[in-house]
Write a sequence for this structure.
């Protein structure tokens, strides 16, 4: 994030430079890898985290295409159960709860605060757009110490379609009263940026 922030700050004088930066939350601002110890405890291998989160993203997209809509946490729980079943693991309620609750207490990546500060100091407006539910993202940002950087947080819950559905991004632009091309998305996922 810090490298991206410096690029935005360096071009701040351009009339074409968008003034609103929309940040993805999970994996972009927050370090999902912090859940590896919980996955190691539950599955014996922390790398199962990557399979699980990939399944969460896949099924959120499937829900958008096929319906019906279910919130991101519910999809996360179902994906965790599917991951356990595929590996022949019976998750204890404690391990299951620890993993799912862990999504709400993820730490920020080490460079995020500095990057956000650079962008804010450059006069850029900062908002978030996430697949997480509104209450979840508020808790995530507060727990990571990032809430004060953002003027607003947006959730796909308003359009009931997960990213990368175009409606999610358009809803942010509409709420801010700006055309989509005046926003710039910062995300760790290429599919999100596309």
């Amino acid at each position: 994030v810090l490298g991206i922030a410096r690029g935005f700050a360096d071009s701040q004088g351009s009339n074409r430079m968008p003034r609103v930066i929309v940040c993805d939350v999970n994996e972009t601002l927050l370090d999902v890898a912090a859940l590896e110890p919980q996955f190691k405890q539950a599955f014996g291998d922390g790398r199962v985290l990557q399979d699980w989160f990939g399944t969460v993203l896949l099924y959120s997209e499937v829900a958008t295409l096929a319906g019906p809509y279910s919130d991101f946490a519910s999809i996360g729980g179902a994906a965790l159960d599917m991951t356990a079943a595929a590996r022949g693991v019976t998750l204890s309620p404690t391990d299951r709860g620890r993993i799912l609750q862990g999504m709400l207490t993820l730490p920020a990546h080490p460079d995020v605060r500095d990057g956000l500060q650079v962008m804010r100091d450059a006069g850029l407006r900062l908002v978030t757009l996430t697949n997480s539910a509104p209450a979840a993202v508020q808790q995530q940002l507060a727990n990571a110490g990032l809430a004060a950087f953002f003027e607003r947080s947006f959730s796909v819950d308003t359009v009931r379609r997960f990213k990368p559905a175009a409606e999610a991004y358009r809803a942010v632009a509409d709420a801010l009263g700006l055309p989509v091309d005046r926003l710039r998305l910062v995300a760790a996922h290429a599919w999100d940026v596309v």
